[in-house]
Sequence to fold (272 residues):
Amino acid sequence: MSIFTTVFAPIFGVLGLVGLASLLYPEFDGRISFGPLGALPAGSTLSADDKKKFRLIGAALLAMCVVLLVGGFMLNSGGGKKENNVEPTPDGGPVSTSPDVMSSETQTTSESPTPSPSPFESDTTSESRQPEKISLASLTPLYENANTEPTSLGGKEYLDLVREDPEKCGKQELIYNVGKKYTKFTATTGLYDDYDESDGPWIFAVYVNDGSGDRQLLKRIMKFGDVKPIDVSVKNAIRLKLVIQWIDPGRLITCSPLNSYAAVWANPTLSP
Fold:
């Protein structure tokens, strides 16, 4: 119950009754006794001016009370400007259900969507992963086949290797595409143990090409019984080339096409 209903409405009602009485009083010509309110004794008469005054005062009071009562009841019943509705939450705190507040909350939510994961994250991770060590024997040369049959070198059996023997004691090249994925090439080189030592020495050479032409990394002359490791940098190399070349000792009879796969690149490894 509002303060208007409990306090102001009764006051305006009493004033309205007083106004109504003042309006009707002259009609009875003052023959109504109000006792302490100062009314004329019964049987008295009012002058024309007094009657006019009573009518004006009564009409003014009555009109004022009607206006105040009607306006007060309209404001009290919600006829004026509505306030924001507030509903209690289960924990006792107020929650505003005002359209303005709800609109603001909805707009804020729509402006900050939940970020979704990028579909390219996994691809980026896989592309940036460094390659592992691989054996050159697992790759296929660009222009010809390479023999990878196990053999012995310096009395030691090797299963992982690449063997070369130039046709008719000439020169042979094996070219591999390494695609700039590696930085180092290592191997153990020599002439395999079944080689006929009378055929003379051989040249072992390693080249790389980074797009600007072949660049020699190693050139070594080896004879039967020599077993030597190699360790060269192949950083930024697109291609790796292994060359084996027979050196004619001046005795043509020693060059035999029956000598096959004389040169051995044992444990040929590409490292990142």
About this structure: Residues 48-76 form the longest helix (29 residues). The first strand starts at residue 86 and ends at 88.
